[in-house]
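User: Run a structure prediction on this.
Assistant: Running it now.
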Amino acid sequence: MDSSRTVDDLVGLLGTWSVGSGALYRRLADGLRALIDEGSLEPGERLPSERILAAALRVSRTTVVSAYDLLRSEGVFDSRQGSGTRVSLKVAPVRSDGWAANGVGQYMYRNLIQKDADLISASCMSTPALPGFTEIVRESLDDLGPLLTEGTYHPRGLPELREAIADFYRARDLPTTADQIVVTTGAHQAISLVAQLYLRKGSPVVVEDPGFAGCLDLMSDQGARFVPVPLDDQGIDINRLRRAVDEHAPHLVYTMPSYHNPTGTMMSVARRREVGELSARYGVPVLEDSAYTGIRHPREPAPLAAFAPRGAEIISVDSLSKVAWAGLRVGWLRAPAEMALRLSRRKVLADLAGPQLDQVVAVRLLADYDRLSRERSAHLSEAMDHLEALIRRDLPDWRWKRPDGGAALWIELPGIGSRAYAQVALCHGLELVPGTLMTAAPQEHHDRYFRLPVPFEAEGREEIVWRLSRAWRELDRHGPIDAPVPLMI
């Protein structure tokens, strides 16, 4: 295995290996074998020692020894004196499973695909449909008539929807025309299109630290070289941002001003204005990701682009997924008209055009967006109150700051790393996202933190906190494990 990889990389690739039935060592052997079958571990790659892997997985050394022995007996692993344990060269190589090279959030999406009925996953947020959503869909069918006889595509999005999105921004003090809008399959695709257009191998990209793993993956897949900049209580640290732009001449600055994921911080008006001025002065494009909504601040500022002077290149991304329903994959980007045209060409290459039925529904949703977002925010605010009360009751030593908005807590663990805790939580049927996955900086920067999304139902919140407390008591009894070590030992 490449010398830059660590045992934590292997632990992340293993994902939810410990969930299920049967002897623990067999589950571990099955997990390692699956990584070889899918191409994540290649013939000749070196495995960590039994002791190191056992410490990282929070299991006994005997469990790892038995798993390795089983795979050796099957001819999957080879062991030689002085060279450790490796994947056998006799194993037929297969193509990679397609996860982003050097990605940091790949494990989060991996477990979206590999579901387990016994596991509660707190890795990704879910957004059930708001009450009344079904009726909105039914009413939208009446608007579909003219499109059914049209028989064409709209790669940039339905004209009615693009105009509705332009109205959305104009109502937020950001003058916008329909030719500045490209409708996408969720905000995720919008960010992917921007990454494809602006980045190439080695492109310096300034990102907030911590940041959202999924978007870091999209840019990493284009070969981005990250320049992490920390946040303060007003958003991205503007002095360090200026220094990073001056020293690295980035091809892109990526920021989440309303609201930051995972911390929930809302960027101040003054900070938004400073970021816009910096874009204009240095000629650096800024990608403004506003798709992480949920709980909303009553005095939420206008989009960052509204404060940018003439000449600033700001691409704004948003979606309806976190307000209306996660299954409605309608997002969009707003950019200078010439850049919107170039991005729409990327959209054509990606999927030709988005589903028109979804876009018809989106037009009606945008007409009632403010009421719907207030309804979602009120529901989540009550859920957040309940979740915080449960954690204070059962886990009083934990620390966090009530977020300005969004739908998750960024929790700091006292005296223990979140990677170790996440492994113990898995054994209790709960999947967590350690802070080490939410950063492009050295992983130890956020190893005390993890992100905890707010479950929508009270029963789910109670069950999650019960499993969190059981895992915490177990980890507290056994104490912390050693610091992470390189895989090549």
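The two ends are 11 Å apart (CA to CA).
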